[in-house]
Write a structure and sequence with these properties.
Radius of gyration: 26 Å
Number of strands: 4
Number of helices: 8
Strand content: 5-15%
Structural class: mainly alpha
Helix content: 40-55%
Length: about 240
């Protein structure tokens, strides 16, 4: 029977530990499986984490024990220290592509299909957004026999262009709380969108100016990239 988050949902600490193992197995395979110390560094990263956490090794060990009981991680004994690896796809009963999406949702919080495709570049290269959406739809419509849905499509936040997806591995999602958090961040998100649009406009204007300059230079019979001539040093200017 696959892991069922409706029966035994993950804690926030377990989700962070599991997702970190997933991430490092794909992005730094030479250092994987991870020691407890390496796992702590990954869990407490300041980048690519939402929320940022500060877990102690004791909290991480407790999370690992809980994940092991659900057959989601495995301990590998070494000569000097133990290492840990995930058993996520098999333990949850999902393909690697779906595991990558769930790992990103656990690490970075709710995201749109487009954001997931960009953020998953080092985990799994999806052909297009439609491919991402297909796996998300499959996770959302998962039958009760397989453990039930693992993601949910959230209502589109005010001012947002696309709805975001959230994972259900920690149990039902508090939609109201997520909506409030999205509303608080909406002004900065809109400012970022406005800046991106302005940059695009400026790039288009520069491209048009370059085309116009090239056309003028062609009519005058001069090279557009020819170096400027200083009249004070140009012999032709003395005549």
């Amino acid at each position: 029977m696959p892991f069922d988050p409706q029966v035994t949902p993950l804690t926030a600490e377990e989700a962070r530990v599991l997702a970190t193992l997933l991430e490092k197995s794909r992005t730094v395979p030479d250092s994987y499986p991870l020691t407890l110390n390496s796992l702590a560094s990954g869990c407490n990263q300041k980048t690519s984490r939402d929320p940022v956490m500060q877990l102690s090794e004791g909290q991480i060990q407790e999370a690992l024990d809980g994940l092991r009981r659900n057959t989601l991680v495995t301990e590998i004994g070494g000569a000097r220290t133990s290492r840990w690896e995930h058993n996520f796809p098999r333990g949850v009963g999902v393909p690697d592509q779906s595991a990558a999406l769930l790992g990103l949702l656990m690490l970075r919080g709710p995201q749109t299909a487009g954001e997931l495709r960009v953020n998953s570049e080092r985990w799994h290269r999806f052909a297009d957004i439609s491919s991402v959406e297909a796996f998300l739809d499959e996770l959302q419509s998962r039958s009760a026999e397989k453990g039930g849905p693992l993601v949910v499509l959230l209502p589109r936040a005010p001012g947002a262009r696309e709805p975001r997806w959230a994972h259900l591995l920690c149990g039902p999602v508090d939609v109201a709380a997520l909506a409030a958090a999205a509303a608080e961040s909406a002004p900065s998100a809109r400012a970022s969108d406005a800046l991106a649009e302005r940059v695009t406009e400026l790039e288009e204007e520069v491209a048009q100016l370059r085309a116009t300059l090239a056309n003028v230079c062609e009519q005058l019979g001069i090279e557009a990239n020819a170096p400027a001539v200083d009249p004070a040093t140009d012999p032709a200017s003395e005549s």
